[in-house]
Input
Amino acid sequence: MQQKAAALAYDKDKDSSPRIVASGVGQIAKAIVQKASEFDVPLFKNEVLVDSLVHMDVNANVPPELYQAVVEVFVWLQNSEKSTQISRF
Output
């Protein structure tokens, strides 16, 4: 099975909803994961969500039917960042 990856971004001042900033399969997915690792971006694994996102255009907004899954990603990320900040002190 080929690796799949998608990267999301959300700026509450600019975006009406989260948007896809990168996505792909195979070598592109590996490059996305590599770049995330270089910048210490935590990786969240959800095969169903990534399967939906990789078929969408880059810079497209996440559709409403995926909001709940994306909220779970952002909550997980926020909690990961908090625990990282606590462990750095």
